[in-house]
Amino acid sequence: MTSTSGRGEREVLVIIGAGGMGRAxxxxxxxxxxxxxxxxxxxQADRVAAELAEHGHAALAVQVDVSSRESIAELAGIxxxxxxxVNLVHTAGLSPEQASMEAVLAVDLLGVALVIEEFLNVIExxxxxxxxxxxxxxxxxxxxxxxxxxxxxxxxxELLGLPVCAADQVLNSHYAxxxxxxxxxxxxxxxxSAWGRRGVRINSISPGVISTAMGRQExxxxxxxxxxxxxxxxxxxxxxxxxDIAVATEFLLGPGAGFITGVxxxxxxxxxxxxxxxxxxxxxxx
Length: 286
Description:
The chain has ten helices and eight strands. Strand 5 (84-90), helix 4 (101-119) and strand 6 form a beta-alpha-beta unit. The chain has a single domain (2-265), classed as Rossmann fold, CATH 3.40.50.720. An eight-stranded mixed β-sheet has the order 1-4-3-2-5-6-7-8, sandwiched between helices. Helix content is 44%, strand content 15%.
């Protein structure tokens, strides 16, 4: 763990995932706060924390494994010890090109649920949280209502035991990713009431194709042609940037979103809307 700030009762912004989106969000909304930056790769967290310090931010780098409740609880404790935890942004995740089906479910599905459960214990009233999901969660075929309710509300430790997560149902990492991101939307919606009782809002953002290291890896992989077709056929006709996500995150964390909780904001250049209305030909992505 590397520290570039002293402990105090200043506001704390927790960002889990020190990749392109996490870095952009830290620069966008971290001024005047202690930024607790968690990542499974300690070197990456240290590097981004040092960069933030060079730009005048106070940053604390912590190694964290989001698939481990104990690791997340430790991160939450460190954040609470650094000051008043007022904002949480969860960006960590694995893409289908990066990992196996089991790893994608452990990080992208279970990890989000564990973070939501653990940080409810430390985030301050009046605060807000954002989970970075994906537009992929909007493109999955409808799930049965009882399955969606389970994904939204069952205790996190039981999630991977659900039939919908079984190996005979999730046959590859691509479907695991889509299912996990749909579960993220549901989990945020299901958590909003409990978080609201604490006086805290929680929402998710579904990025489209974003120019991060992960996004570029996906573009170079098996899904690349379909992703490029979606970009070309959507309203904005361009790839997204980490700054696009940072601006949306700033809004959802801020007072202008004070009556918004439990919902997902698609920041995807119009892809989701085009697919839903049939104005985008998805055959190239199939």
